[in-house]
Specification:
This is BQ2448_586 protein. By secondary structure, the protein is mainly α. It folds into two domains: 82 residues, no CATH class; 66 residues. The chain is 70% helix and 0% strand. It contains five helices and no strands. The chain is rod-shaped, with a radius of gyration of 31 Å.
């Protein structure tokens, strides 16, 4: 975002202060709601000719709508879904983002994630199987060596 003038910063802070007066939200819901509205607020204040009253009216109308329906308040952040593993880098911990233009995208991502997990599980099973086979082979070789030693000892007697 470009450098904001003091007037634009004041408008931006005003909007977020008003949003802070909403019903108490869980931290990730508040973060998601901010992520949904941040681009709209920035776009709204970019115009230097925008009146304070116009911004106040839009923010007030949005807040009235959200306060009128608490279920909407909790459903809206889910459109910009973030899993609570925020700093995780693994694929399985990344958020599956729903794209309104491609409704099947979430199910495609889930299917891809499921396939990767299956492959990883199969790879783990193969690794375990190889390890068990190697351990059994070592056990057989150890028994054969012990048997040869016993045979040699029997011959000496």
């Amino acid at each position: 975002m470009a450098v904001l003038s003091s007037r634009q910063r004041a408008l931006y802070r005003f909007a977020w202060r008003r949003f802070g007066q909403l019903l108490p939200l869980v931290r990730y819901e508040r973060r998601n709601l901010r992520a949904v509205y941040r681009p709209q607020f920035r776009e709204l204040i970019q115009d230097d000719q925008v009146e304070w009253a116009a911004v106040e009216h839009k923010v007030h109308a949005t807040l009235k709508l959200l306060q009128a329906s608490p279920s909407l308040l909790h459903q809206l952040p889910s459109l910009y879904y973030h899993h609570h593993y925020i700093q995780a880098q693994a694929d399985s911990h990344q958020a599956i983002k729903w794209n309104p233009q491609d409704p099947a995208s979430a199910s495609k991502l889930w299917a891809t994630r499921h396939k990767k997990a299956q492959r990883a599980a199969d790879g783990l099973a193969e690794t375990v199987q190889r390890g068990v086979a190697k351990a059994l082979q070592g056990l057989v070789e150890h028994a054969e060596k012990a048997e040869r030693v016993m045979l040699g000892l029997n011959r000496v007697r």
